[in-house]
Structure formats: C-alpha cells, structure tokens
Diphosphomevalonate decarboxylase (Phialocephala subalpina), 391 residues
Amino acid sequence: MADKKIYQASTTAPVNIAVVKYWGKRDPKLNLPTNSSVSVTLSQADLRTHTTAACSTSFNNEDTLLLNSSPQDVTGARTQACFRELRALRSSLEAADPSLPKLSTLPLRIVSENNFPTAAGLASSAAGFAALVRAIANLYELPSSPTDLSRIARQGSGSACRSLFGGYVAWQMGSKADGSDSVAVEVAPASHWPTMRALILVVSAEKKGVSSTSGMQITVATSELFQRRAEIVVPKHMELMEKAIKEKDFATFGKVTMMESNSFHSTCLDTYPPIFYLNDVSRAAIRVVEDINKKAGKIIAAYTFDAGPNAVIYFEEENADVVAGVLKGALGSLEGWHGREIKVQDIGEVDARAVQVLKEGVSRVILTSVGEGPIRTEESLIAENGEPLQK
Ligand code: DP6
C-alpha cells in the first residue's frame, strides 16, 4: 500500500525594512540586484508570516498555497523557482540516501497566515517568501544555511532574502551571472543592538501605487540619477551603514537611513514617467522627525519609506519617550499604542501643520523593535488529516 503519511513542518518569518535600499535589477529573471542593501529585521511579535508546508501522496497532484484562507497562484515564475530549487536539494539528499522518503516527488500544500493586514503595504512579500522557503526547507530536512536559503528566497522576492536572518542583515549583490553569490549575510545579530525600535505609521492609501517590481524596472530603464546611485552613492552608504551598526552609532545609522530613503525616492522622481511613493502624509512625517532631531540637537530619529507612503521611524529605546512620545501626542488614540508605556510628550517646536496632516492621514501605528530570524514552530496550520485548519 502506498504511504499516505502527511509530512509537514512549520515556521514563522519576519518582515525587514531596508536602511540601504534595494532598487533595480541587473537580471530580472534571477532577481539579481544592481546594488547591495542592508535591512533591520523587525520583531515577529508584531509582524510575521506563519507558514506550514506539507506533502503527501494523498494530496491532489498539484502544488497549492493558501494565504489568510484565500488560494494563491503558485504558477508564477518566482514561486516556481523556489519550489524547483528546494525540490532539487531534497532530490539530491534522496539520491544519496535511498532510505529517505521521496518527498521531492510529492505535491506541496502550503498554508500561510500573516498577523498583520496584507494590504497595508508592509513588506509582506519579504516575510511571505522567507517563510515559504524556510518551511519547505524544514519539511525536506535540508542542511542548508540561512545564506544558502537566501539565494532561493531572493528568487521569490528580492527583499525576502534578508528575512532569513534576524537583526541587521546585508544582501550582497554579488557579481556572478548565475547569482550564486547574490546572498544575504548577517551584519550583526539582534542581540548586538537590541535597543533599536521602529515605529511604523500606516498611511491610509486609497489605491495601490506602482509595484516595486515594475517600478524599479522603469527606473533602471529611464533614470540617469539611478546610475550614480548604484555606482557611487550605495557603495558609500553600505560601508558607512555596516560600520555604524557594528559600532552602534545611531547618529550615522540615522543619517544614512534618511539619506538612503531620500536617494531612492529621488531616483523614483527621476524615473520617466515619474513615480511618486511619498505623499503629503509621508512628507509630514519627515518634517516631524526633522523637528525632533533639531530640538534634540542630534539625530535620535530616522525615517525611511519603501514603495509606498508608510513611514518607518527608527530610534533607540533611550529616546522612546521623546520620539514615540511626540508622535503619540500628535496621533492620539490610534490603534497600535496599546500595551506600551509611552508617555505623550510635547517638546514644542513641532510643525503644527505637519502634525495636523499626520493626524488626518495615519490610520494605524505599529510600535515594534529589531527581532529574530525565522523560528521553527510546532504550531501547524494543517490538521493531521492534511486539511488546512480553520481559524
Ligand atoms: C523599496 O523585494 O518587493 O522595499 O524583488 O521585485 O519582489 P522584488 O521587489 P521587492 O522590492 C523591495 C524594494 C524596497 C527596498 C528594499 O526592501 O530594499
């Protein structure tokens, strides 16, 4: 009788927010970037994808993926590349040890859940692909390191390769045509600089803007500023950023983070036709951060923006009262502050119009911190009979 056993493994994986931005592909098929990047992994207590991967001869003969209870298309080249690479690694284990079950030949059933709204524009593809790759690697019992797996996750979504690690992570662009050296490495673990906090201001966006995948392609094709960014600006920022993280030098970390965000969004404006990710609310957040830093007489808060209007503001715990306190004063009773001991602060000198724009435009806040990489869990999203568990 055929083995009807259901094999399964589960993991959670974090979101990461870049402080040196990835923007531009030199090879869209392999998802190879035009520059290296650095990110901070955020705590999974607030933002994570939980994924269970299962396989069995009893499953219908096709791979499936359920995200927050809705079926996703897995036929796209990116998901297929991840499946193919992971199966190939499993298959070579099976070839070396014929006693292993032939999991590489079985259909995959993947069930995923985000603990945050997928539509909020919060780097869900990074956590999503990192969790998918890590869960399948666990299922297949692959001996691969996080860096090995980052090479696979990168093909799902570039930024996902950095979510295989916790703490402070670099994605080295690499130079080989096959992408084998375009991988993520740890710059420092979360424990090295555990006092890093991130406040996310979720801006109510009416419609989705240009996706990062297509946005960066148009930038590469049309922006001249982009050339300079990839060749001169980013290499300089990479060096400064890695040193700032190693030395826990927030002033430099913050300055480079803000200049990076500004440089990336300049290349978006220099794209033809131009791409606008920042809106009035984003600019109000920049203004308030500038005012906080001016009042402090040094950089204690740093903003950054990805391919959308949400602001992420980094600061250290010792300045939480000022940075988060001022913003809490501005934003009042929004969802997301609950359970945190943040006292409202009024430092004066904060632009009143910017505060008003923030009040009207921010729909929710997420106060979080630097966190760990993927965590294996026994908590499964698939029942023993192989069916997805209903929430
Ligand atoms: C602005 O990783 O979403 O967030 O590789 O096409 O999936 P694809 O792009 P994606 O781009 C992220 C761009 C960014 C900057 C960053 O995270 O480094």
Q: What stands out?
A: Residues 201 and 353 are 17 Å apart (CA to CA). The chain has a mean pLDDT of 93. The domain at 7-188 is CATH 3.30.230.10 (Ribosomal Protein S5; domain 2).
